[in-house]
Amino acid sequence: MNHRQGIIATGLLLAIHSSHIYAQATTVNDTLKITLPQAWQKAEAYSRAIAIRKKSTAISATEIEDLKRERLPELEVMGSAEKATNIPIYGDGVFTKPTSQHEVIHTLYKVGADMYFNIYNGNKLNLKIQAEKVLHQMAAIREEETISAIRYETAAHYLELQQALVFRDLIQRDIADQQKQLQEIKTFYKNGTVLKSDVLRVELDLSKRQLTLVKIENDIQVATQKLNIILGEADERPVLPAALAMPEAGVDYTQCLHEALAHSYQYHLSENQTQLSKLNLRQVKANVRPKAGLYGDFYYANPQIFLYPYNPSWYSLGIAGVKVSFPISSLYHNTTKVSAAKIELDKEEEAHKDTEDKVRQQVKEAFLRYKESLVQIDVAQTNVARAQENARIIKSAYFHQASLVTDLLDADVQLLQTRFELAAAKILAQNKYYLLRHITGTL
Protein backbone atom coordinates (compact mmCIF):
# COMPACT_ATOMS: atom_id res chain seq x y z
CA MET A 1 0.00 0.00 0.00
CA ASN A 2 1.49 3.33 -1.07
CA HIS A 3 1.25 6.61 0.85
CA ARG A 4 -1.76 7.98 -1.05
CA GLN A 5 -3.73 4.78 -0.60
CA GLY A 6 -2.90 4.86 3.13
CA ILE A 7 -4.37 8.35 3.40
CA ILE A 8 -7.54 7.24 1.64
CA ALA A 9 -7.91 4.17 3.82
CA THR A 10 -7.34 6.20 6.98
CA GLY A 11 -9.98 8.73 6.00
CA LEU A 12 -12.49 6.01 5.22
CA LEU A 13 -11.85 4.24 8.52
CA LEU A 14 -12.20 7.47 10.52
CA ALA A 15 -15.46 8.32 8.78
CA ILE A 16 -16.85 4.84 9.33
CA HIS A 17 -15.75 4.84 12.98
CA SER A 18 -17.31 8.26 13.66
CA SER A 19 -20.55 7.26 11.96
CA HIS A 20 -20.59 4.02 13.96
CA ILE A 21 -20.22 5.90 17.26
CA TYR A 22 -23.05 8.29 16.44
CA ALA A 23 -25.28 5.47 15.18
CA GLN A 24 -24.57 3.50 18.35
CA ALA A 25 -25.53 6.49 20.50
CA THR A 26 -28.73 6.84 18.51
CA THR A 27 -29.55 3.20 19.19
CA VAL A 28 -28.82 3.39 22.90
CA ASN A 29 -30.73 6.64 23.47
CA ASP A 30 -34.01 7.69 21.94
CA THR A 31 -33.58 10.58 19.54
CA LEU A 32 -35.11 13.83 20.78
CA LYS A 33 -37.14 15.31 17.94
CA ILE A 34 -37.78 18.92 18.86
CA THR A 35 -38.78 22.24 17.34
CA LEU A 36 -37.22 25.53 18.41
CA PRO A 37 -40.29 26.71 20.44
CA GLN A 38 -40.25 23.36 22.26
CA ALA A 39 -36.54 23.79 22.91
CA TRP A 40 -37.25 27.22 24.40
CA GLN A 41 -39.84 25.73 26.76
CA LYS A 42 -37.44 23.02 27.95
CA ALA A 43 -34.57 25.49 28.38
CA GLU A 44 -36.73 27.90 30.39
CA ALA A 45 -37.97 25.09 32.63
CA TYR A 46 -34.45 23.78 33.26
CA SER A 47 -32.44 27.02 33.47
CA ARG A 48 -31.07 27.75 36.93
CA ALA A 49 -30.39 31.36 35.95
CA ILE A 50 -34.10 31.88 35.25
CA ALA A 51 -35.02 30.15 38.53
CA ILE A 52 -32.71 32.53 40.42
CA ARG A 53 -34.27 35.55 38.70
CA LYS A 54 -37.78 34.31 39.55
CA LYS A 55 -36.82 34.00 43.21
CA SER A 56 -35.37 37.52 43.17
CA THR A 57 -38.66 38.83 41.74
CA ALA A 58 -40.61 36.97 44.42
CA ILE A 59 -38.36 38.41 47.14
CA SER A 60 -38.94 41.98 45.92
CA ALA A 61 -42.71 41.39 45.90
CA THR A 62 -42.51 40.15 49.51
CA GLU A 63 -40.52 43.22 50.52
CA ILE A 64 -43.29 45.47 49.17
CA GLU A 65 -45.80 43.69 51.40
CA ASP A 66 -43.39 44.00 54.32
CA LEU A 67 -43.18 47.78 53.86
CA LYS A 68 -46.97 48.09 53.61
CA ARG A 69 -47.29 46.40 57.03
CA GLU A 70 -45.27 49.23 58.54
CA ARG A 71 -48.41 51.36 58.19
CA LEU A 72 -49.97 49.32 61.00
CA PRO A 73 -49.56 50.56 64.62
CA GLU A 74 -46.54 49.51 66.64
CA LEU A 75 -47.65 47.49 69.67
CA GLU A 76 -45.51 46.29 72.54
CA VAL A 77 -46.23 44.43 75.77
CA MET A 78 -43.91 44.32 78.75
CA GLY A 79 -43.69 43.03 82.29
CA SER A 80 -41.24 43.26 85.17
CA ALA A 81 -40.70 42.07 88.73
CA GLU A 82 -38.13 43.91 90.83
CA LYS A 83 -36.65 43.87 94.32
CA ALA A 84 -35.61 47.11 96.03
CA THR A 85 -33.46 47.68 99.11
CA ASN A 86 -34.06 50.15 101.94
CA ILE A 87 -32.72 53.64 101.40
CA PRO A 88 -29.72 54.31 103.74
CA ILE A 89 -29.47 57.80 105.26
CA TYR A 90 -25.92 59.11 105.64
CA GLY A 91 -26.39 61.79 108.30
CA ASP A 92 -22.66 62.20 109.01
CA GLY A 93 -21.40 62.11 105.40
CA VAL A 94 -21.13 59.70 102.52
CA PHE A 95 -18.04 57.91 103.83
CA THR A 96 -19.57 57.17 107.25
CA LYS A 97 -21.95 54.51 108.45
CA PRO A 98 -25.61 55.20 107.68
CA THR A 99 -27.36 56.74 110.63
CA SER A 100 -30.70 55.18 109.67
CA GLN A 101 -32.57 53.14 107.05
CA HIS A 102 -35.64 54.47 105.25
CA GLU A 103 -38.09 51.66 104.79
CA VAL A 104 -39.48 51.14 101.26
CA ILE A 105 -41.75 48.61 99.60
CA HIS A 106 -39.29 45.97 98.53
CA THR A 107 -41.21 44.07 95.79
CA LEU A 108 -42.38 45.89 92.65
CA TYR A 109 -44.49 44.46 89.81
CA LYS A 110 -45.52 45.99 86.52
CA VAL A 111 -47.27 44.74 83.36
CA GLY A 112 -48.43 46.91 80.51
CA ALA A 113 -48.62 47.71 76.81
CA ASP A 114 -47.76 50.67 74.65
CA MET A 115 -48.72 51.70 71.13
CA TYR A 116 -47.54 54.16 68.49
CA PHE A 117 -49.41 54.89 65.26
CA ASN A 118 -47.65 57.00 62.65
CA ILE A 119 -49.90 59.68 61.19
CA TYR A 120 -47.35 61.61 59.15
CA ASN A 121 -43.61 61.26 58.69
CA GLY A 122 -42.88 63.42 55.67
CA ASN A 123 -44.48 60.77 53.41
CA LYS A 124 -41.28 58.71 53.82
CA LEU A 125 -43.04 55.34 54.09
CA ASN A 126 -45.07 55.87 50.92
CA LEU A 127 -41.90 56.92 49.10
CA LYS A 128 -40.11 53.78 50.34
CA ILE A 129 -43.01 51.65 49.07
CA GLN A 130 -42.88 53.38 45.68
CA ALA A 131 -39.12 52.80 45.49
CA GLU A 132 -39.57 49.12 46.36
CA LYS A 133 -42.21 48.81 43.62
CA VAL A 134 -39.71 50.23 41.12
CA LEU A 135 -37.12 47.70 42.33
CA HIS A 136 -39.73 44.97 41.85
CA GLN A 137 -40.28 46.15 38.27
CA MET A 138 -36.53 46.06 37.69
CA ALA A 139 -36.36 42.52 39.06
CA ALA A 140 -39.16 41.49 36.69
CA ILE A 141 -37.34 43.13 33.75
CA ARG A 142 -34.11 41.30 34.63
CA GLU A 143 -36.09 38.06 34.78
CA GLU A 144 -37.50 38.69 31.29
CA GLU A 145 -34.03 39.65 30.06
CA THR A 146 -32.59 36.39 31.38
CA ILE A 147 -35.38 34.41 29.69
CA SER A 148 -34.66 36.20 26.41
CA ALA A 149 -30.91 35.54 26.77
CA ILE A 150 -31.56 31.83 27.42
CA ARG A 151 -33.83 31.71 24.39
CA TYR A 152 -31.20 33.31 22.17
CA GLU A 153 -28.49 30.98 23.48
CA THR A 154 -30.78 28.00 22.87
CA ALA A 155 -31.52 29.23 19.35
CA ALA A 156 -27.79 29.64 18.65
CA HIS A 157 -27.02 26.04 19.71
CA TYR A 158 -30.11 24.77 17.88
CA LEU A 159 -29.04 26.50 14.66
CA GLU A 160 -25.47 25.27 15.11
CA LEU A 161 -26.75 21.70 15.20
CA GLN A 162 -29.02 22.35 12.21
CA GLN A 163 -26.06 23.65 10.22
CA ALA A 164 -23.87 20.66 11.09
CA LEU A 165 -26.63 18.24 10.05
CA VAL A 166 -27.16 20.08 6.75
CA PHE A 167 -23.39 20.06 6.13
CA ARG A 168 -23.30 16.30 6.78
CA ASP A 169 -26.09 15.71 4.31
CA LEU A 170 -24.32 17.83 1.68
CA ILE A 171 -20.93 16.15 2.14
CA GLN A 172 -22.46 12.65 2.12
CA ARG A 173 -24.25 13.32 -1.15
CA ASP A 174 -21.11 14.90 -2.59
CA ILE A 175 -19.00 11.87 -1.55
CA ALA A 176 -21.51 9.57 -3.26
CA ASP A 177 -21.28 11.68 -6.43
CA GLN A 178 -17.47 11.72 -6.26
CA GLN A 179 -17.36 7.95 -5.87
CA LYS A 180 -19.47 7.53 -9.01
CA GLN A 181 -17.22 9.98 -10.83
CA LEU A 182 -14.15 8.07 -9.64
CA GLN A 183 -15.54 4.87 -11.10
CA GLU A 184 -16.09 6.62 -14.43
CA ILE A 185 -12.51 7.93 -14.41
CA LYS A 186 -11.16 4.46 -13.58
CA THR A 187 -13.10 3.09 -16.53
CA PHE A 188 -11.55 5.75 -18.76
CA TYR A 189 -8.14 4.86 -17.33
CA LYS A 190 -8.61 1.17 -18.21
CA ASN A 191 -9.47 2.26 -21.70
CA GLY A 192 -6.30 4.37 -21.79
CA THR A 193 -8.18 7.63 -22.14
CA VAL A 194 -6.87 9.29 -18.94
CA LEU A 195 -3.65 9.03 -16.94
CA LYS A 196 -3.01 7.17 -13.71
CA SER A 197 -2.26 10.54 -12.07
CA ASP A 198 -5.85 11.61 -12.73
CA VAL A 199 -7.13 8.60 -10.81
CA LEU A 200 -4.78 9.33 -7.89
CA ARG A 201 -5.76 13.00 -7.78
CA VAL A 202 -9.45 12.15 -7.61
CA GLU A 203 -8.79 9.53 -4.91
CA LEU A 204 -6.85 12.07 -2.84
CA ASP A 205 -9.64 14.59 -3.22
CA LEU A 206 -12.18 11.97 -2.14
CA SER A 207 -10.05 11.19 0.91
CA LYS A 208 -10.14 14.86 1.92
CA ARG A 209 -13.92 14.78 1.70
CA GLN A 210 -13.99 11.73 3.96
CA LEU A 211 -11.90 13.58 6.53
CA THR A 212 -14.24 16.55 6.26
CA LEU A 213 -17.12 14.20 7.02
CA VAL A 214 -15.32 13.06 10.17
CA LYS A 215 -14.97 16.67 11.30
CA ILE A 216 -18.64 17.37 10.62
CA GLU A 217 -19.68 14.27 12.58
CA ASN A 218 -17.65 15.58 15.51
CA ASP A 219 -19.24 19.00 15.09
CA ILE A 220 -22.65 17.34 15.34
CA GLN A 221 -21.74 15.64 18.60
CA VAL A 222 -20.31 18.87 20.06
CA ALA A 223 -23.38 20.87 19.02
CA THR A 224 -25.65 18.14 20.37
CA GLN A 225 -23.96 18.23 23.77
CA LYS A 226 -24.21 22.03 23.95
CA LEU A 227 -27.92 21.90 23.18
CA ASN A 228 -28.54 18.99 25.56
CA ILE A 229 -26.83 20.83 28.41
CA ILE A 230 -29.04 23.88 28.07
CA LEU A 231 -32.13 21.67 27.69
CA GLY A 232 -31.26 19.54 30.72
CA GLU A 233 -30.92 16.34 28.69
CA ALA A 234 -28.21 13.68 28.81
CA ASP A 235 -25.04 14.75 26.98
CA GLU A 236 -25.07 11.88 24.50
CA ARG A 237 -28.76 11.91 23.64
CA PRO A 238 -29.14 12.55 19.89
CA VAL A 239 -31.24 15.56 18.96
CA LEU A 240 -33.07 15.96 15.68
CA PRO A 241 -34.12 19.58 15.07
CA ALA A 242 -36.91 20.54 12.71
CA ALA A 243 -36.23 21.29 9.06
CA LEU A 244 -34.38 24.51 8.37
CA ALA A 245 -36.89 27.32 7.83
CA MET A 246 -36.44 30.39 5.68
CA PRO A 247 -35.93 33.63 7.65
CA GLU A 248 -38.61 36.32 7.68
CA ALA A 249 -38.03 39.01 5.09
CA GLY A 250 -40.70 41.58 6.01
CA VAL A 251 -38.86 43.20 8.92
CA ASP A 252 -39.17 46.99 9.16
CA TYR A 253 -36.52 49.11 10.89
CA THR A 254 -38.98 51.73 12.19
CA GLN A 255 -41.10 49.00 13.75
CA CYS A 256 -38.02 47.36 15.30
CA LEU A 257 -36.92 50.68 16.80
CA HIS A 258 -40.42 51.31 18.18
CA GLU A 259 -40.46 47.82 19.71
CA ALA A 260 -37.02 48.36 21.24
CA LEU A 261 -38.05 51.61 22.95
CA ALA A 262 -41.18 49.84 24.21
CA HIS A 263 -39.61 46.54 25.29
CA SER A 264 -35.81 46.85 25.45
CA TYR A 265 -34.58 45.54 28.79
CA GLN A 266 -31.61 47.88 29.15
CA TYR A 267 -33.72 50.90 28.18
CA HIS A 268 -36.39 50.17 30.80
CA LEU A 269 -33.83 49.30 33.48
CA SER A 270 -32.22 52.70 32.89
CA GLU A 271 -35.63 54.35 32.97
CA ASN A 272 -36.45 52.71 36.32
CA GLN A 273 -33.04 53.68 37.70
CA THR A 274 -33.87 57.30 36.88
CA GLN A 275 -37.20 56.90 38.66
CA LEU A 276 -35.36 55.61 41.74
CA SER A 277 -33.18 58.71 41.74
CA LYS A 278 -36.28 60.92 41.62
CA LEU A 279 -37.77 59.06 44.58
CA ASN A 280 -34.48 59.32 46.46
CA LEU A 281 -34.51 63.10 45.99
CA ARG A 282 -38.03 63.26 47.38
CA GLN A 283 -37.00 61.11 50.34
CA VAL A 284 -34.07 63.39 51.12
CA LYS A 285 -36.31 66.46 50.95
CA ALA A 286 -38.72 64.74 53.35
CA ASN A 287 -36.07 64.92 56.10
CA VAL A 288 -37.11 68.52 56.89
CA ARG A 289 -40.78 67.72 57.39
CA PRO A 290 -42.50 67.26 60.76
CA LYS A 291 -43.41 63.93 62.27
CA ALA A 292 -46.75 63.29 63.95
CA GLY A 293 -48.27 60.21 65.54
CA LEU A 294 -50.70 58.84 68.11
CA TYR A 295 -49.31 57.05 71.12
CA GLY A 296 -50.76 55.25 74.10
CA ASP A 297 -49.51 53.57 77.27
CA PHE A 298 -51.47 51.39 79.69
CA TYR A 299 -50.17 49.32 82.59
CA TYR A 300 -50.91 47.62 85.93
CA ALA A 301 -48.37 48.09 88.69
CA ASN A 302 -47.75 47.34 92.35
CA PRO A 303 -46.92 49.25 94.56
CA GLN A 304 -48.49 52.62 93.86
CA ILE A 305 -45.59 55.02 93.70
CA PHE A 306 -46.98 57.24 90.96
CA LEU A 307 -48.64 59.66 93.44
CA TYR A 308 -47.87 60.48 97.05
CA PRO A 309 -48.65 58.99 99.53
CA TYR A 310 -47.41 55.63 98.29
CA ASN A 311 -49.15 52.38 99.20
CA PRO A 312 -48.56 48.67 98.46
CA SER A 313 -51.62 48.25 96.27
CA TRP A 314 -52.24 47.38 92.62
CA TYR A 315 -53.22 50.25 90.40
CA SER A 316 -53.66 50.91 86.68
CA LEU A 317 -52.81 53.88 84.50
CA GLY A 318 -53.64 54.70 80.90
CA ILE A 319 -52.12 57.53 78.86
CA ALA A 320 -52.95 58.52 75.27
CA GLY A 321 -51.97 61.50 73.19
CA VAL A 322 -50.53 63.02 70.05
CA LYS A 323 -46.82 63.43 69.55
CA VAL A 324 -45.44 65.99 67.10
CA SER A 325 -41.77 66.69 66.44
CA PHE A 326 -39.74 68.70 63.97
CA PRO A 327 -36.01 68.05 63.23
CA ILE A 328 -34.65 71.60 63.29
CA SER A 329 -31.05 70.48 62.69
CA SER A 330 -32.09 68.97 59.34
CA LEU A 331 -32.61 72.51 58.02
CA TYR A 332 -28.83 72.86 57.72
CA HIS A 333 -27.75 69.22 57.72
CA ASN A 334 -29.98 68.34 54.74
CA THR A 335 -28.85 70.99 52.24
CA THR A 336 -25.80 69.10 50.96
CA LYS A 337 -27.78 65.85 50.89
CA VAL A 338 -30.38 67.47 48.62
CA SER A 339 -27.63 68.81 46.36
CA ALA A 340 -26.03 65.36 46.10
CA ALA A 341 -29.41 63.76 45.33
CA LYS A 342 -30.05 66.34 42.56
CA ILE A 343 -26.64 65.64 41.02
CA GLU A 344 -27.36 61.89 41.19
CA LEU A 345 -30.68 62.46 39.40
CA ASP A 346 -28.97 64.51 36.68
CA LYS A 347 -26.41 61.74 36.25
CA GLU A 348 -29.11 59.06 35.87
CA GLU A 349 -31.02 61.18 33.35
CA GLU A 350 -27.86 61.53 31.26
CA ALA A 351 -27.20 57.80 31.62
CA HIS A 352 -30.75 57.09 30.44
CA LYS A 353 -30.24 59.23 27.34
CA ASP A 354 -26.95 57.42 26.72
CA THR A 355 -28.71 54.07 27.06
CA GLU A 356 -31.33 55.19 24.54
CA ASP A 357 -28.57 56.10 22.09
CA LYS A 358 -26.94 52.71 22.57
CA VAL A 359 -30.23 50.88 22.07
CA ARG A 360 -30.87 52.75 18.82
CA GLN A 361 -27.34 51.94 17.66
CA GLN A 362 -27.71 48.25 18.56
CA VAL A 363 -31.06 48.01 16.77
CA LYS A 364 -29.65 49.71 13.68
CA GLU A 365 -26.61 47.43 13.55
CA ALA A 366 -28.61 44.25 14.20
CA PHE A 367 -31.17 45.24 11.55
CA LEU A 368 -28.52 45.98 8.93
CA ARG A 369 -26.64 42.75 9.68
CA TYR A 370 -29.89 40.83 9.32
CA LYS A 371 -30.67 42.45 5.98
CA GLU A 372 -27.08 41.76 4.94
CA SER A 373 -27.56 38.07 5.73
CA LEU A 374 -30.67 37.99 3.50
CA VAL A 375 -28.57 39.41 0.65
CA GLN A 376 -25.98 36.72 1.33
CA ILE A 377 -28.67 34.08 0.82
CA ASP A 378 -29.60 35.52 -2.58
CA VAL A 379 -25.95 35.73 -3.61
CA ALA A 380 -25.28 32.19 -2.36
CA GLN A 381 -28.27 30.82 -4.32
CA THR A 382 -26.98 32.48 -7.48
CA ASN A 383 -23.48 31.13 -6.83
CA VAL A 384 -24.82 27.59 -6.40
CA ALA A 385 -26.58 27.79 -9.77
CA ARG A 386 -23.45 29.13 -11.42
CA ALA A 387 -21.22 26.52 -9.77
CA GLN A 388 -23.57 23.72 -10.88
CA GLU A 389 -23.46 24.91 -14.46
CA ASN A 390 -19.69 25.37 -14.33
CA ALA A 391 -19.22 21.87 -12.90
CA ARG A 392 -21.42 20.40 -15.64
CA ILE A 393 -19.43 22.17 -18.37
CA ILE A 394 -16.03 21.24 -16.91
CA LYS A 395 -17.07 17.60 -16.40
CA SER A 396 -18.27 17.32 -19.98
CA ALA A 397 -15.07 18.94 -21.22
CA TYR A 398 -12.89 16.65 -19.08
CA PHE A 399 -14.48 13.46 -20.32
CA HIS A 400 -14.07 14.81 -23.84
CA GLN A 401 -10.40 15.45 -23.02
CA ALA A 402 -10.83 19.21 -23.37
CA SER A 403 -9.83 20.12 -19.76
CA LEU A 404 -7.50 18.90 -17.03
CA VAL A 405 -8.40 16.89 -13.95
CA THR A 406 -7.40 19.85 -11.81
CA ASP A 407 -10.14 21.90 -13.48
CA LEU A 408 -12.61 19.11 -12.77
CA LEU A 409 -11.65 18.91 -9.10
CA ASP A 410 -11.69 22.69 -8.68
CA ALA A 411 -15.19 22.85 -10.18
CA ASP A 412 -16.41 20.12 -7.81
CA VAL A 413 -14.87 21.87 -4.80
CA GLN A 414 -16.42 25.19 -5.83
CA LEU A 415 -19.84 23.56 -6.12
CA LEU A 416 -19.56 21.97 -2.68
CA GLN A 417 -18.28 25.23 -1.20
CA THR A 418 -21.18 27.25 -2.60
CA ARG A 419 -23.65 24.74 -1.20
CA PHE A 420 -21.99 25.04 2.21
CA GLU A 421 -22.11 28.83 1.92
CA LEU A 422 -25.83 28.78 1.07
CA ALA A 423 -26.65 26.60 4.10
CA ALA A 424 -24.43 28.75 6.33
CA ALA A 425 -26.09 31.93 5.02
CA LYS A 426 -29.55 30.59 5.89
CA ILE A 427 -28.39 29.66 9.40
CA LEU A 428 -26.69 33.05 9.85
CA ALA A 429 -29.85 34.87 8.78
CA GLN A 430 -31.89 32.98 11.37
CA ASN A 431 -29.30 33.77 14.04
CA LYS A 432 -29.28 37.47 13.16
CA TYR A 433 -33.07 37.52 13.23
CA TYR A 434 -33.21 36.09 16.76
CA LEU A 435 -30.44 38.47 17.85
CA LEU A 436 -32.51 41.40 16.54
CA ARG A 437 -35.53 40.12 18.48
CA HIS A 438 -33.42 39.74 21.61
CA ILE A 439 -32.16 43.32 21.35
CA THR A 440 -35.67 44.70 20.81
CA GLY A 441 -36.97 42.66 23.76
CA THR A 442 -39.49 40.68 21.70
CA LEU A 443 -37.82 37.26 21.51
What do you see in this structure?
- It contains ten helices and eight strands.
- It is an alpha+beta fold.
- It folds into two domains: 3-72 and 121-290 and 326-440, Outer membrane efflux proteins (OEP) (Up-down Bundle); 75-120 and 292-325.
- A four-stranded antiparallel sheet has the order 2-5-7-8, with no helix packed on it. It has a two-stranded parallel ribbon with strand order 1-6. A two-stranded antiparallel sheet has the order 3-4.
- The model is unreliable at 1-16 and 18-28 (pLDDT under 50).
Keywords:
two-stranded parallel ribbon, 67% helix, disordered N terminus, 10 helices, 4-stranded antiparallel beta sheet, 13% strand, 443 residues
Widest β-sheet, arrangement of strands:
2-5-7-8
- Outline: elongated
Helix/strand structural class: alpha+beta
Please name the CATH architecture of the largest domain: Up-down Bundle
User: What ranges have pLDDT less than 50 throughout 5 or more consecutive residues?
Assistant: 1-16, 18-28
Separation, N- and C-terminal Cα atoms: 57 Å
Which percent range describes the beta-strand content?
5-15%
